Amino acid sequence: MKVFGLTGWSGSGKTALIVRLIPALTARGLRVSTVKHAHKGFDIDHPGKDSHNHRMAGATEVLVSSPRRWALMHELRDDEPELTLPDLMAKLSPVDLLLIEGFKREPHEKIEVWRAEVGKPLIAAEDPRIVAVASDGPVPDSPVPVLNLNDADAVAAFVVARCGLGG
Q: What CATH architecture is 2-41+82-163?
């Protein structure tokens, strides 16, 4: 399974790019999965739902299944640490390409999503694991190639070539 990331400051457009990038990659016949890091807590179920009640009652894991999807929720209790990226990856089914959103300090190669209007410095200037920048405008002093943030097909072509996936 090839692994490639998208990183950047909050508000730069990482999620917007990834949701355009996935169809561009699957159109090439690739099976793609994603891992998204959330800095804050999140919930995929809600009060009043059976799965939520199971978790609130103290279940460590709750698996919800239907004819269309299944989801496994694992509650980190007490002082359990957040899982590392390799631990999370081990829980996934194999695919052609795993896209990682966030996890900017992990050692996989990444594209930095950068917009001048966010007002943050270019991470690529300090991180050799960033192999390109995707932006909607000029990127002053970029040490790596700059891709058009609005051209998902061009970004997909770069990722496919960089990961050696053909197509």
A: 3-Layer(aba) Sandwich (3.40)
The confidence score (pLDDT) of residue 116 equals 95
SS (H, E, C) the chain: CEEEEEECCCCCCHHHHHHHHHHHHHCCCCCEEEEECCCCCCCCCCCCCHHHHHHHCCCCEEEEECCCCEEEEECCCCCCCCCCHHHHHCCCCCCCEEEEECCCCCCCCEEEEECHHHCCCCHHHCCCCEEEEEECCCCCCCCCCEEECCCHHHHHHHHHHHHCCCC
Mean pLDDT per block of 10 residues along the chain (167 residues) reads 96 96 97 88 82 88 90 85 92 95 92 96 96 96 97 98 88
What residue spans define the domains of the chain? 2-41+82-163
pTM summary value: 0.89
